[in-house]
Design a protein that fits this description.
FAD/NAD(P)-binding domain; alpha+beta; 392 residues; globular
Length: 392
């Protein structure tokens, strides 16, 4: 097989990159280790930045997002006895959209498959051949058990944290920065209308809680749990009780409903550089992970492939290498800005272990920060600009 761009990973990053390249007549082939049904069913992010929505709209994949998604003009920050709204359009002139990553993935699959996009599902034994060569390759075994070699001019590693792309870059070349946080999120998808019009980020001495949503009838909620906790410790009644306690506010009620799905997500920050090695380019979770507090994971992936598509289009249509050469450094600037914002939101909102000798002091620092953010226009604007998406 032969193509211009071989894409490893059929998540939103890989699918969107293929869509963006196709607008300029650049062909690609996507390979994916999982089935289409598995990829579509993964419950992930749900908040999409202002600029990312613009990108999706221009790429022709946002019709259903605009029809069924929910535009949000702010968030609520809460601590016991107080809830404050941050008005994003007033603060920075931008909004965000709530639209599940699962729905965006379905939209991208539909559009790419309708266009005849070659996608090989349930492949195995994936390896990248000669990434420093002018024409690298991707070796894999297809779903029928037949060995295949895909020759290409560039390889896009959109295969997530556990994929093969990042590890193809020699350790002598890579630098990794990482922080493992001392807590996790227990998330549920519930068949109940949201009890709020916009997301609630709640600090509480027993732990953080978040009220999000996926539609007008489906709610997405989270509670902070210990990093070694397990789902078996959290029957539905305990989850709803923890949510009601941590988000309690006079005059407001949290509605509960049947739980459709639940799982525990560990919290980490991870950055690997460079994001380019010869003709191998990393995008999305293959190069970086952020805690979900700042809603940056999917948005960073969209920013990466938007930048990468621009670079590859310039290379293939104009013979210019300037954007290709700048890709890694330019992408990492945004990655580190998002990593900092996600760390800051996480640190401000999550309760430390009460057994920690510094826990009482840190709680007062967090409350002071929350009061400052909700009372200072400058501080509120900084949060709004980062949350809705910054340029660059």
């Amino acid at each position: 097989m032969r193509t211009r761009v071989g894409i490893i990973g059929a998540g939103p990053a890989g699918l969107l990159l293929s869509q963006l390249l196709s607008h300029h007549g650049i062909d690609s082939v996507i390979i994916e280790t999982r089935s289409q049904e598995y990829v579509e069913a993964r419950i992930r992010a749900g908040v999409i930045e202002h600029g990312a929505v613009q990108t999706l709209t221009e790429a022709g994949v946002a019709d259903r997002l605009h029809r069924e998604g929910m535009r949000h003009d702010g968030i609520y920050l809460q601590w016991p006895g107080e809830r404050h709204h941050l008005d994003f359009p007033d603060l920075c002139g931008q909004s965000v959209w709530v639209y599940g990553q699962t729905e965006l993935t379905k939209d991208l699959f539909r559009i790419r498959l309708e266009a005849g996009q070659p996608i090989h599902f349930e492949v195995s034994d994936v390896s990248i051949i000669d990434p420093l060569a002018e024409r690298p390759g991707i070796a894999f075994t297809d779903a029928d058990g037949t060995p295949q070699l895909l020759e290409c001019d560039a390889v896009a590693g959109c295969d997530g944290f556990h994929g093969v792309s990042r590890d193809t870059i020699p350790e002598s070349v890579r630098t990794v920065w990482q922080r493992i946080y001392p807590y996790s999120w227990l998330g549920i998808l519930a068949e109940v209308a949201p009890s709020t019009d916009e997301l609630i980020y709640a600090w509480h001495p027993e732990g953080f809680a978040l009220h999000s949503m996926r539609s007008h009838s489906i709610s997405r909620l989270y509670v902070q749990v210990a990093p070694d906790d397990v789902i078996e410790n959290w029957p539905d009644d305990r989850i709803w009780e923890a949510l009601a306690t941590r988000m309690a506010l006079d005059g407001w009620t949290l509605d509960s409903g049947p739980t459709l799905e639940k799982g525990i997500t560990p919290m980490r920050s991870f950055v690997s550089a460079p994001m380019r090695y010869g003709n191998l380019f990393l995008a999305g979770d293959a190069a970086h992970i952020v805690p979900p507090t700042g809603a940056k994971g999917l948005n960073l992936a969209i920013a990466d492939v938007t930048r990468l598509s621009d670079a590859l289009v310039r290379r293939f249509t104009e013979g210019r290498e300037d954007l290709v050469d700048a890709y890694s450094d330019a992408a990492l600037q945004r990655v580190w800005r998002s990593t900092h914002f996600s760390w800051w939101m996480t640190s401000m909102l999550h309760a430390d272990d009460p057994a920690d000798a510094n826990a009482a002091f840190l709680r007062q620092m967090q409350l002071s920060q929350l009061r400052y953010v909700t009372s200072s226009r400058a501080a509120s604007t900084t949060l709004a600009e980062n949350y809705t998406g910054f340029s660059g």
